[in-house]
Amino acid sequence: MIAFELKTAISELRGLIEGAKSILPFTGAGISTECGIPDFRSPGGLWTKNQPIPFDAFMASSDMRNESWRRRFVMEESFAKAQPGRGHRALASLYRSGKVPALVTQNIDNLHQASGISPRDVIELHGNTTYALCLACGERYELSWVREKFEANGQRAPACNCGGYIKTATISFGQSMPVNAMQRAEALTKACDLFLAVGSSLVVWPAAGFPLMAKRNGAALIIINREPTEFDELADLVVRTDIGDALAPFIVS
Ligand SMILES: [Zn+2]
């Protein structure tokens, strides 16, 4: 069924959540919009103004690396201020209750970890933009360090001691998907009896594969998203209300 009304949405959600033994939340940009994180892909989003820099361009050109960092520091105002929203807090409550063993996200904003979910239980399909890694040796760098060097060097991106390029720990277009994260996401999808997609349009690969995989394995499927998705007909419950409003009653503080 499709719930357009908040009251119906909450009571249907409650029924399915209470009946489930193991819930796998799968989150996308929509859960973070109330936190001030822009949805890159939406109309008017960042990517319609600035084409994303593909991985091979980042690797090939120092201008692209500098530009990529310049853009990242412009966005820092939104990322640094952002606090977990009602959706994040509700999922963290379900995690604490023991019903959610881990969570899969397409988001790079670190807000699930900030809401209290252990970093090892947040599976990030697109990485994390709140810190950086050397692409050659894997050394971790904090953004504040990168920014200091960047600004002191006339807006040029610093390199690692090993000579490797330093990039936010995100997965760029054209960069290979993180193998371990993909495997864990698949195993969790097959193990859950309720797959809870929140704020994802479920279009971008690999996100599109998981709801189907869950359904085939006998799990119930809930989709909470403002816009219709391709999987709505397959879902046991579709919620089209505001995400924060729908999940707020599940926050246990
Ligand atoms: Zn290095």
Detailed description of the structure:
With about 250 residues, this protein is α/β, with parallel strands linked by helices. Helices cover about 40% and strands about 15% of the residues. The chain contains 10 helices and 10 strands. Strands 1-10-9-8-2-3-4 form a 7-stranded parallel β-sheet, with helices on both faces. A 3-stranded antiparallel β-sheet has the order 6-5-7. Zinc ion binds next to loops.
How do the strands and helices of this protein lay out in sequence?
Elements: E1 2-3, H1 6-19, E2 23-27, H2 46-49, H3 55-60, H4 62-81, H5 86-96, E3 103-105, H6 111-114, E4 122-124, E5 127-134, E6 140-142, H7 143-152, E7 166-170, H8 179-191, E8 194-198, H9 209-216, E9 220-224, E10 237-239, H10 243-247
Parallel strand pairs: 1-10, 2-3, 2-8, 3-4, 8-9, 9-10
Antiparallel strand pairs: 5-6, 5-7
Bound molecules: zinc ion (ZN).
Shape: elongated
Count of separate DSSP helical elements: 10
Overall residue-averaged pLDDT value: 94
**Ligand catalogue:** zinc ion
The total strand number stands at 10
Quaternary form? single chain
Percent of residues in β-strands? 15-25%
Biggest β-sheet: strands ordered side by side in the sheet: 1-10-9-8-2-3-4
Q: Identify low-pLDDT runs.
A: none
Largest sheet: 7 strands, parallel
Overall structural class, as computed from helix and strand content, comes to: alpha/beta
Instruction: Please provide the ordered H/E string of secondary-structure elements.
Output: EHEHHHHEHEEEHEHEHEEH
Percent helix range: 25-40%
Radius of gyration using CA atoms only: 19 Å
Alpha-carbon distance between the two ends: 30 Å
